């Protein structure tokens, strides 16, 4: 019994004599909102615990240096940068553009207002970023067109004095993106197409002079559609252009000579790289019935076209319309 008591006493004695390891406190500084605090925390604490001890809360956008999970070291300086965002909505006027159409039926220098211009309206949302109350940057995050601008269209006369000349038949010509026709005399001229967007890729008159085949610039971006193929009756009053539903005609489209209203045409595919297309090297016939597009015949399917085939083939009718080179 005595030995047992001595053993227990010895255990308590050694336990009391063993030196205790105490965790030393670390002094750190915390700066936020222009105020610095000096606090002490036990070793092994993190930056987040220091913020909690200092009574500082963070928003989702605030930044802490060093990061919140960092272990504290003696003399560490903790800095909080307050970050906030503000969104501002503004309405901006879109100035209208001025478009000019040259008209040979008006005396030179004379102008006529075809369409009055009207400004448009754009709404933009701007994001402002502030750090500690100071704006450090802004950017446009959204933009909406509330009202599109209407262009001002002005017709400008370019008619010049000239001595009339006799013409044995019809003459069609292209100027300023518009198609005109003269009949019998240079003094007898009138507009056929006044859209101002004919691109001169195709401009072909039928053998009897009644139908004009032409191309117009597309309203779509060039990488989607280059142009469209149209026809207009030169004898109609007023002449009304008709779309043939054919697009991207760059190299060739023409009436068959001495035949009843048949055209041959070839197409391309738009590309963003030079020259702006990839040729299909195809060939099609489009026949007309009573001056109206009727049926299409495929002559050549899309093909590579051989060396430099990306540029594209071109074609030419023989004078009698029996062969195509």
**Level-1 CATH class name of the largest domain:** Mainly Beta
Strand order within the widest beta sheet = 2-1-4-3
Backbone structural class:
mainly beta
How many structural domains? 3
Kindly report the CATH topology of the largest domain: Methylamine Dehydrogenase, Chain H
Level-2 CATH architecture of the largest domain: 7 Propeller
Taking all residues together, what is the mean pLDDT?
A: 88
SSE topology string:
HEEHEEEEEEEEEEEEEEEEEEEE
CA radius of gyration is 41 Å
What is the oligomeric state here?
single chain
* Biggest sheet record: 4 strands, mixed
Assign a percent range to the helix content. Answer: under 10%
In terms of DSSP E residues, the strand content is: over 45%
Shape call: elongated
Number of helices in the DSSP assignment: 2
Short structural description:
By secondary structure, the protein is mainly β. The protein has helices at residues 2-17, 47-53; strands at residues 25-32, 35-42, 63-65, 77-81, 83-94, 98-107, 111-115, 120-131, 134-147, 152-159, 166-175, 178-193, 198-205, 211-217, 227-233, 242-247, 253-255, 262-265, 268-270, 277-279, 283-289, 292-300. Helix content is 7%, strand content 52%.
Set down the secondary structure blueprint:
Layout: H1 2-17, E1 25-32, E2 35-42, H2 47-53, E3 63-65, E4 77-81, E5 83-94, E6 98-107, E7 111-115, E8 120-131, E9 134-147, E10 152-159, E11 166-175, E12 178-193, E13 198-205, E14 211-217, E15 227-233, E16 242-247, E17 253-255, E18 262-265, E19 268-270, E20 277-279, E21 283-289, E22 292-300
Parallel strand pairs: 1-4, 6-10
Antiparallel strand pairs: 1-2, 3-4, 5-8, 7-10, 8-9, 11-12, 13-14, 14-15, 15-16, 17-18, 18-21, 19-20, 21-22
């Amino acid at each position: 019994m005595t030995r047992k008591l001595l053993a227990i006493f010895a255990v308590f004695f050694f336990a009391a004599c063993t030196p205790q390891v105490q965790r030393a406190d670390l002094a750190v500084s915390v700066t936020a909102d222009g105020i610095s605090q000096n606090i002490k925390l036990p070793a092994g604490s993190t930056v987040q615990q220091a913020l909690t001890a200092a009574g500082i809360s963070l928003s989702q956008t605030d930044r802490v240096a060093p990061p919140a999970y960092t272990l504290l070291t003696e003399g560490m300086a903790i800095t909080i940068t307050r970050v906030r965002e503000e969104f501002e909505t503004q309405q901006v006027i879109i100035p209208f553009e001025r478009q000019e159409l040259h008209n040979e039926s008006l005396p030179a220098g004379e102008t006529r207002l075809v369409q009055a211009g009207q400004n448009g309206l754009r709404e933009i949302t701007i994001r402002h970023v502030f750090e500690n109350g100071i704006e450090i940057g802004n950017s446009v995050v959204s933009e909406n067109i509330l009202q599109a601008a209407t262009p001002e269209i002005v017709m400008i006369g370019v008619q010049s004095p000239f001595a009339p000349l006799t013409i044995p038949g019809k003459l069609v010509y292209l100027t300023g993106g518009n198609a005109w026709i003269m009949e019998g005399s240079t003094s007898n001229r009138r507009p056929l197409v006044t859209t101002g967007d004919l691109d001169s890729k195709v401009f072909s008159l039928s053998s009897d002079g009644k139908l004009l085949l032409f191309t117009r610039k597309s309203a779509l971006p060039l990488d989607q559609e280059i142009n469209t193929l149209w026809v207009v009756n030169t004898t109609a009053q007023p002449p009304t252009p008709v779309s043939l539903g054919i697009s991207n005609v760059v190299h060739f489209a023409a009436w068959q000579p001495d035949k009843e209203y048949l055209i041959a045409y070839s197409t391309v595919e738009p590309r963003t790289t030079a020259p702006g297309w990839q040729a299909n090297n195809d060939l099609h016939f489009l026949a007309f019935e009573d001056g109206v597009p009727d049926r299409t015949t495929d002559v050549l399917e899309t093909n590579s076209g051989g060396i430099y085939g990306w540029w594209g083939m071109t074609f030419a009718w023989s004078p009698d319309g029996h062969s195509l080179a």
